[in-house]
Amino acid sequence: MKTLDSLYIEAADWLKQIRKSGLIVIVYHRDSDGVCSAVMATKILKHLGCGSVKVIPCDPATPAVTPSLLRSLSELQPDYLVFVDMAVDQDPNPLVLIKQKYGTKVIVIDHHPMSMDLNMLDIKHINTRSADATAYLPASYMMYKIAGKTSKELAKGYSWVSLIGTIGDHGIENCQDLVKDFSSAYGRIATTQKDFSQTKYGKASEYIMSAKASDDDGIEKARIVLERATSVDAFLANETMKGWHFGIQAIIDHLVKNFEKDSELQPNANIAIYNIKTDKRVESVVASIISDKFPRMTIAVCRESGDRIGCSLRNQKSADLGGLVKNSIAGLKDARGGGHPQAAAASIKKSDWITFKNALINNNLRYPAPAKK
Ligand SMILES: [Mn+2]
Fold first, then answer.
1. Are residues 42 and 159 located together in one domain of the fold?
2. Angle in degrees, 0-180, between the axes of helices 200-214 and 283-293, rounded to the nearest 10
3. Tell me, what CATH number does 149's domain have?
4. Which strands make up the sheet holding 308-314, listed edge to edge?
């Protein structure tokens, strides 16, 4: 079995061999960890002297290669494709197609539970789970480690960016070497997930999620502002980001406050289903906040949008939500979903709501959390 360190070296070596004049496209997951991973990838590639780097977010529905993402990539015809924080191994067929059609070289840097090893398909697949199946190390932390294999100064200088994404993915406890490196550069302000989430770095992660919830292009705007920012203060000073955060915060506070009153609690199944009514994409943020208060219960926050319903699920202690969601969408047409043991998401057709909801309730206790090593 490979070691984590050898994975980071492999990724750095792959990035180092990129032809400087080649077109590189980075595709990232639409969350705080994904944004920070993409910014770190850009910093590494610029450091290596790569001239043309284009960055695009994944499809809003899922961090896999969907038909619409495939169309964008086919138009760009990149020489190199870098996926960060995306579970593209769920369906490798579109990647194989792009490779064959355009000769694109592909690397996947990810930490989602693996569906398959893409190295078999001549795609460089860097996933911490292949070195340690139970590892929970956010992608922006991986990018910090990969940056360190390129230049120690680079990694230290942008450790604050990786820190924001690591807070966003609730991974601080497992990433204490990042915390140490960050502290030596920027001062020791916290060590735990809980304390870091109260700092301006935690706030920056909230800004990214507010941008995502406020506007279709919000996540990409947040990424651009973060890429240009020289510090976390510069990022937090951006007026657009501030305005989005302010507007979204009021909606989130209201929804969190009404959770106990308005959610459908199933004590025997240890799950609460909360249907929120808003046109803002706040389900994942609301689910995370509620989950901090009820870490041993499965919290499913669901929101109707057009003819679909999107659900964000959280359970910090007692369930495997990735497994639960995969099982609960099985057999439903046009349904997507998956994720981590502690956090997962699904998107289903509105007409399948009752079937899906009952599946969640009936299956929740059948997917206990995986044993820790
Ligand atoms: Mn992530």
1. yes
2. 140
3. 3.90.1640.30
4. 264-266, 271-276, 298-305, 308-314, 343-349, 336-339
Output the pLDDT for position 373: 46
Domain-ending residue, one of 135, 156, 188: 188
**Crossing angle of helices 139-148 and 4-16, rounded to 10°:** 70
Could you identify the residue written with the tokens 């399948």? Answer: 352
Distance 211 CA to ligand 1 centre (A): 17
Say if 214 falls within a structural domain. no
pTM: 0.88
Q: How far, in Å, is the centroid of ligand 1 from the Cα of 324?
A: 19
What are the structure tokens assigned to 35, written together? 């944004």
| Domain hosting residue 47, numbered range | 4-188
* 231 in any annotated domain: no
Closest to 90 measured CA to CA, from 349, 371, 329: 329
> In this predicted structure, what is the pLDDT of residue 304?
97
Residue 301 has pLDDT above 50, yes or no: yes
Between the CA of 145 and the centroid of ligand 1 the distance, in Å, is 15
Report CA(153)–ligand 1 centroid distance (Å).
24
pLDDT in tens, 311-342: 999 999 999 999 999 999 999 999 999 888 99
Instruction: Report CA(268)–ligand 1 centroid distance (Å).
Output: 31
Q: How many domains does the chain have?
A: 2
